[in-house]
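Let us practice reading a record.
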Amino acid sequence: MSTVAAVSGRSRPPGPGGASDATLVSSKEGQRWEAALRAAMAEWLASPSMQSTAHGVLTTALFAPALGNGNTDAVQRQVDAALALAAEMAPDDVEIAWLEATRCPAEATACDAGGAIERLQRLEPDNAAVWLLAGDRTGRGDEAAFDRYLRRAAQASTYDTHFGVAERMLEAQMATLPLPARSREVDAYLRARAGFGPGPRLDDREVRLMLAAGQSWIDMPPFARLHDACRMPQPPGRIATCRSVLTRMADGNSAFPRMIATGLMTELADGTARPAWAERYRVTLWTVMGSPPTPGPELQRALFERGDYLAVEEWLRANGRRMPPDWLPKDPQQRDRILGQPVRPPG
C-alpha cells in the first residue's frame, strides 16, 4: 500500500485479527505521525514562500487530496486554476507547460491544454512528443492536420515525455517542508505502507520521495491517434514518417512509449529489419514485466530521475536477471507480433 494512502487517511491500520502488539503500536504511532505531517503540510503550503512561486502554487493544488479533500470535482477545479495561474506566473517553464498540456481536462475553462501545447512548440520545437500531443488534439476526420504534426514529429531529434516531472517538482518543493520527528516504529510503519518491507531507517529525503511519488500522476500523453495512424495498411509516405517517429520513441527512457513503438515497428519494418524489431519488442516486454511490484527507495528515485524503462533495465541487470532465450509473453497478440504471424483480433 502506498505512502500517499497513509498520509491522506484513506488507508486503514492492520486490524487486531492476528496482528502483533508491536504492529499495533507501530500503527498507532504512525497514525499520530501522519496527523502531525498533515498539520505541518497545511501550514507549509499556505506560507507566502510557497504561494509566491509557480511551482509552489501547483504543489499546493496537487497535495490537496492528501489534506483530507479527496479526489473531488472541487479539487480538480483547484488543480485547473493552479495550472492556469502557474502558467501565467512562469510562461516559459517547460515543466509547467507539460503538466498543463497533459492534465488539463478538455472541458476545463480555467486551464488551457491547447495553449500549453502551443507554448511547448515554442519551448521544445525539437521534441517529437510535443508535436504528437498537438496531433492528438486534431479532429478524427482531419487527417491532413494530423499528418502535418506527424511530419514535424518525424523531423524532431528527441522524444521526451518528461516522465516523472510532477514527482521531481514535488520532491524539490518539499526540501523546505519540516517533517515531524520519526521513531523507529514510525519508520517501520511507513516502510510497510509503501510496501518496502523491513530495512534500515529512512532518511528525510527518502520520506519526501515517498510522499512525492504517491501524490502525483504519471503525465503520459495519449497514444490512440498515433497507434491508429501507424497501423498497417498505410500509404508509403505515411509509413516512412511513422518509421521515423517510432524509431525515436523506441530509444526513449519511458516504458509505455517503447512498447507502443517497438510493437508497431514489427508491422512497419521492411523484411530485413523486421526480425531485429521483433527482438527489440520481446526484450522491451520482458523488461517491463520484470519490474518489481513495489520498488524500494533507490529504484523509486531512479524511476523518476532516469525514466521507468531505463531504471528497471538497470535494476534487472544489477540483480542478475536475464531474459530466457525462449521467453515469450502470454498475450497472444504480443506473441503474434514477435513471431511474425498475423495478429489475431483481441478477445
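A brief commentary: The two ends are 32 Å apart (CA to CA).
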